[in-house]
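> forwarded from #structure-qc
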């Protein structure tokens, strides 16, 4: 799978760990930065990852900041993105099965590396169920053009 990954200064350490874990899994990883703990603005990295997903350069996106919340908010401003902040296994699975989420946002201050790996694994292997959920996804997509 092709994964775009990005973080702000609060999430860079976890991002780098997740990047290595993804590579070891055999995924292709496109690292949009940041690459240091120097203060940066998370919307820049949310946009960079989101555009890679929308443009088809990545199958899914991974964002890491302190809580995952700001990254998810910023990513969802990009048309075609369905970003979700994930804190437990059920939300990781349901975000894919029901919402066809294409970007996961994780909080480095809230989630240990091992837990983040499991949440990300679930997010990556879970398939969208379609069916009754598709009409809702269509309505979400319509909001992109009817704001």
């Amino acid at each position: 799978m092709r994964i775009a990954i990005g973080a702000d200064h609060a999430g860079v350490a976890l991002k780098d760990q997740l990047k290595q874990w993804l590579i070891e899994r055999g995924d292709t990883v496109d690292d949009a930065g940041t690459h240091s703990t120097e203060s940066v603005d998370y919307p820049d990295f949310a946009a960079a990852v989101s555009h890679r997903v929308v443009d088809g350069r990545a199958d899914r996106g991974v964002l890491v900041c302190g809580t995952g919340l700001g990254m998810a908010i910023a990513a969802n401003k990009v048309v075609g993105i369905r970003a979700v902040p994930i804190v437990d296994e059920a939300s990781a699975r349901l975000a894919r099965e029901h919402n066809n989420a294409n970007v996961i946002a994780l909080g480095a201050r809230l989630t240990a590396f091992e837990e983040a790996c499991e949440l990300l694994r679930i997010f990556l292997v879970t398939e969208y169920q379609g069916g009754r959920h598709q009409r809702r996804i269509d309505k979400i997509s319509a909001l992109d053009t009817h704001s």
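QC bot note: The chain has six helices and five strands. Strands lie at 2-7, 28-31, 60-65, 83-85, 103-107.
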